[in-house]
Each structure stands twice: as structure tokens, then as C-alpha cells.
Amino acid sequence: MWIVRLALRRPYSIAVLAVMITLLGALATRRMRADIFPSVDIPVVVVVWSYPGLTAEDMERRIVLVCERGYSTTVGGISKIESQSMSGIGILKVSFEPGTEIGAAIAQIGTSSEHVRARSARRRSPARRTPSSRRPARCWSRSTVASSAAPSPPPPAPPAPSPAPTIRDVTAPSDDKVGVLAPNTGIPVGEKIPDVHATDLDGKDVSLSSLVAKGPVLLVFYRGGWCPFCNSEIHSLTTVYPEFQKRGVTPVAISVDAPDAEAKLKATYQIPFPVLSDVDAKIIEAFHVVKKVTDEEYARMKGNGVDIEKTSGKTHHEIAIPAFFLLDRGGVVRWAHSDPEFRVRPSTAQLLAAIDAKLGHADGDKRK
Question: What is the location of CATH 3.30.70.1430 in the chain?
Fold first, then answer.
């Protein structure tokens, strides 16, 4: 009852207080939407794959994993990728950094998905074809932008976007540091390599001795298709491949990535030379170019969307130190280079100069 008595004694004070409450309430209401429901610009694209006849395991291995690798290397601005595989269905949720142009993102994902669809159609095994699995793969995508504001109309179709940055340029070492093995790494020049084996993209066993028997080989050890600096290196080697052919030298790329992951890399950059899978790390151990990823490094890489257990299918947490070995027909190392600093690698011009110096043009012409 005290508030009633106060109101009767001080009517003007109560009236002023009521007016103030009304005005402040109106101001608070105008700001409430921004304070409680702020605008959040987080573009998300959901991609749904339909491939009738595939088991959940095959969908994960042959479609979803390949898509994840493709998106991460060919689509810009990705924050994280989440996926789920079911029988005949694969769902990928691609989250982008705030402010990413959603139209360009959809265009880039569509292009990458088309490459995956074409590749999956080419690589399907006839033994797995059933009446229900003869239908081609289909892909749908849906984009959303998480925001509390009223939905804006769909953006107009963007002009053809420029290619997304898929690689990061490496730095070439100074000439005096080219052809140098880092301490405690590599097989020295003049020694014969061990006859170790790897797996090609078709799952077939390949020995190094069978490769060098066909002619000189430039072994290229790279960390994995998830590494943008390795992608830059592979792209450069692909671009100047005719120069290697003139010299009779065949580049051979090796990593611990599984064959499916390496197949995606080869398809992305249309690599004309062999790409081998060393999932058990036997070759990188034999050549002493092993980088052991610590638990802390693995956790950090996984937080950035790179799971080396998933790409290799193994839990040894070993990857290759970037390295190059020029081998002659006898399997003898004629030139070698390694550097744990993965951002620094010899340029293609430096590699070709080393080949010319160690094998000579005449030898290269004779092997054509």
C-alpha cells in the first residue's frame, strides 16, 4: 500500500516517472533488434550428392572425400567443411568467412563439383554396377546466409568469377643453396637408391627400379595435396613438363596421401607424369625425408581443416619433407635437394639447370 500513498502524496513525481519509463522503453525497443538479434553475415553452401547404389563407405571414399579436397583447393574463403555420408547420399556443408560473396562461392563450388562428377563417372568400377547404380551421380546445392535480419532478395547472378586462389607461390632458394641436402636428410649424391615400392593411382604396386629402368627420374617428395605450396610446385612442374620430356627425364611425385586423394590432385592440375602413394611412409623413410607431425601440430592442422589421418588412411602422422632426387638409369643419385622449410623450394628453372649440369643435353637427346 505504500506505493499508493506515495502516488497520492506526489502525483507530479509519479507522472514524470511514468513518462520517463515510456520514453526509455520506446528507445530500448528501437535498439532491441540490434542488441538481441544482431545481423550475422555467415555464408553457408550445402551440397547434396545423390549416387544410388553406393554404400555409405563408398560415398565417403569416392565422392565426399574427393569433394572436400577439391573445395579446399579450388574454392576461396572457406572457413570449414562438414560432411555426412549415407547409402547413396552425401551431404557437405561448406561454411565461408563472413563477408564472402555467396554468388561467387556457389559458382566455384559448382565448377569443382562438376569436375568431381565427371571423374566419378569415369572411374566407376564395372564390377560394382547394379541396375540401381547405373543412374549417374547428381548434385544439388543450397546456399544460406545466417542472419537475423529480414531475408534479402537473392543476389543477381555474378559475372564469371576469376579463378579462386588454389595455390601459394613458393620462394626459390639462392643458387648457392640449390642441390643441398638438409642435415640428416636424404640419400647423398653418388649412392644407389633402395628398391622400395609404392602404389599408383590404380592401386597397382610400383617399384622405383622399374621407373628408373625406363630412363632418368626426378623424384619429387611433397607433403600432400592439402598443402597449397605443394600444389604450386606440382602446378609448376606440370606447366614445364615438355622441358623435362626434351631432356628425357620423368618427374615422379610421391606423398603419403592415399590413391584417391592423389587422384583428385592429378585430375585438378591434369598432371602428365606419375603420382605415387606412399601411405605406409616406406619410401620417405628409405630416403630419410620424414617429417614426424607432433600431436600439437596434428591438432592445429585438424583445426584448420587438414586431417592427415583421413588423407593417408593411416595414423603414423608422418609426411614428407619437400625434397628432390635426380636418378639415372642405374638408380644412382646424381643430384639431390631437401629443405624442411616447405615454403622454400627450387624453381623449375633451377631444376632444369641441375638436370642439364648433371645429365647433359646430349644424354637427354639420346633418350628421346
Answer: 42-146
